[in-house]
Amino acid sequence: MTKSVFITGATSGFGRAAARRFAEAGWSLVLTGRRRERLEELEGELSDRVAVHVVELDVRDEAAVKQAVDALPQAFSPVQVLINNAGLALAPEPAQEVALEDWHTMIDTNVKGLVNVTHALLPSLIEVGAGASIINVGSTAGKWPYKGSHVYGATKAFVEQFSYNLRCDLHGTGVRVTDIAPGMAETEFTLVRTKGDQAASDQLYNTTTPMTAEDIAEQMFYVATLPAHLNINFLEIQPVRQVWGGMVVDRDE
Ligand SMILES: NC(=O)c1ccc[n+]([C@@H]2O[C@H](COP(=O)([O-])OP(=O)(O)OC[C@H]3O[C@@H](n4cnc5c(N)ncnc54)[C@H](OP(=O)(O)O)[C@@H]3O)[C@@H](O)[C@H]2O)c1
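A: This is the predicted complex of the input protein with NAP.
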């Protein structure tokens, strides 16, 4: 039977690269995101090789998520792998300078959106049982604090703990749960975070060697295709040229 993967945030970055990686291996794809034209472009690119079902979907819209899952065509159901990838960071400024609305957007997307999709797809994943996987995209920001990470890092800490807790609840069903926590990777992430500052994005990535979207998609594919008796709980991955910052001390002049 053809396996199907449900990807949130398939219009860019990790999600789009994951769609291509799973397509290479012949999986059926359910591709979701808010930008319809991007979804259609990807469908045009991949649908001569594999079955593709696209859904314009904002993960924050609980009713729309439920409807999208309930209306999945039979050929894509049950879903073998869920990749909870949709997410964003906003407002790189210190907390005290940030608009509350940006905090709400991150919580609504990275936390509430992720649980909306997970909740809707749990019955399908449990129906598959052994070999099914939930891959949640966390971040190094969920473990390691830095200036300007405030609510973003906190949402990714939620993703990590939710992944572990889900794993406990799903114990016995065969469904696996993994938190993939990437460090710096070049995608549209910084463009979104800076609200369209291409120069800031270029400066961040062009002066070093960040990971690529394909690097992360490869990890997603690896995790999803491990033998059914194995579960990677947490997979933290960074480019070699990135390490943790040290302690910062406020000193007298
Ligand atoms: N790049 C990094 O350095 C990095 C590091 C660690 C973790 N991450 C995490 O990796 C994930 C993917 O990010 P990326 O780096 O690939 O960035 P990206 O290129 O900006 O892609 C983000 C994706 O999320 C989707 N998305 C955002 N808000 C959404 C919403 N409300 N509903 C549905 N989809 C939504 C976007 O699609 P639409 O705009 O079309 O909806 C887009 O497809 C995120 O969770 C991010 O936090 C990134």
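Helices lie at 13-24, 36-46, 62-70, 100-128, 150-170, 189-193, 198-206, 213-224. The radius of gyration is 18 Å.
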